[in-house]
Amino acid sequence: MSNKMWGGRFSERPDAIMEEINVSIDVDRHLYAQDIAASKAHAAMLAAQGIIAAKDAKNIAKGLDTILSEIVAGSFDFKRALEDIHMNVESRLSELIGPAAGRLHTARSRNDQVATDFRLFVRDTIDGIDAALAGYQHALAERALQHADTVMPGFTHLQTAQPVTFGHHLMAYVEMAARDRGRFRDARKRLNESPLGAAALAGTSFPIDRDATAKALGFERPMANSLDAVSDRDFVLETLAAASIAAVHLSRFAEEIVLWTSPLVGMVRLSDKFTTGSSIMPQKRNPDAAELARAKTGRVIGALTGLLIVMKGLPLAYQKDMQEDKQGAMEAFAALSLAIRAMSGMVSDLVPDEARMKAAAGEGYATATDLADWLVRELKMPFRDAHHVTGRIVAAASTQNLPLHELPLAEMQAIEPRITQQALSVLSVESSVKSRVSYGGTAPKNVRAQAKAWLKRLEKE
Ligand code: ARG
User: Fold this and answer.
1) The pairing of beta strand 193-194 with beta strand 221-222
2) Is 456 exposed, middle or buried (0-12, 13-18, 19+ CB in 10 A)?
3) Where in the sequence is the signal peptide annotated (predicted)?
4) 21: exposed, middle or buried (Cβ count in 10 Å: 0-12, 13-18, 19+)
5) Quick one: which of 196, 348, 397, 402 has the most CB atoms within 10 Å?
6) Predicted ipTM beyond 0.85
7) Which of 1-10, 172-181, 373-382, 437-446 is predicted with the least confidence, judged by mean pLDDT?
8) Which atom of ligand 1 is nearest to the CA of 200?
């Protein structure tokens, strides 16, 4: 028997291989809630416009509710022969309510249907990711407040640069997550238009009300061009691009956690809850969650590049290639939200080794800039000269293997006679971070204010 949904002109069944390459139910079954919501909105509109009878619309809505509860309960029988979620739902609807089910597809095509479903799905996904990112920011800001005074080395080129505070470092990721959330919000704004009613590609001759279905589904307005409505997936691409950037941010932090927890560095200890052991080496504490959060980036960026490549050569309007838009994107969004949750978990209960951090912050002449700044401030030296003088003092300390503050004052004065005892007071890591009071700087009081402001803002959301 040929296909009941589209087989009128066919006399043979599809080959098993045809079915295998064509089927998408394993992926698009995840769109069931959106598919049913969109069908209900469509049926209600058809009745309101007098296109189908009110009684049929009522039965359709009732049948769709039954299907929803069957799917949620796990009793729905998804059939591969029915290709996708749209035909599975419609076929079950006709079992439940009879021929009226066949009226649901009036003035609609699977092309506008799938575009609508997936927009709704991506919109829900964005909302979920936004909430997860807010939780991540909250975890970071709480720890930052707790560690506003905890001094650690700041690096450039992975060489000790200047002391910073652990709280300041954590707050950097709060800011990144804020921009990530902004990018998702922007994508959400642009995607929030309804393709429903574009039908196959050209619109329809029925007197439909696209404003009504758009409104019922929480869209801002109907999409203005029916060809565009069914043939673009830029909303997925844009969301994947935002997801890729967010994943890269998480990955950089994950990389730092891997580095910090290495016994070679030893600045941070993860809780047992977020550490795994080795089956052969009994001493091991592996930061697997951080490593996997770092690795999930591959999936997310892979989905973005994969879909860009699927889309790049497609003429208008719908092409079946576009069925490949879902799997990678869904996996990517799931990977990202898991990575966000794993990072939040690690942040919440990691323990910094404050003594080790402080010692490391003082190594490598990290306060040399503070001495140069002192020369500028107290002796009115041009910064370039102060830099040179300090460089010579560092060299003298370095040949004797001494930290700056242990180099005898007389030896500093041999290089710059006007240096006084007072200069030594700026060389401690604490006074260094305390002095960085410029807006956005690492001073503990800045960090405390920033962390508090963020916590307040997040709690109000
Ligand atoms: N399963 C399809 C997809 O995800 C639905 C649209 C099918 N449309 C069509 N004309 N075959 O893209």
Assistant:
1) parallel
2) exposed
3) none
4) exposed
5) 196
6) yes
7) 1-10
8) 10
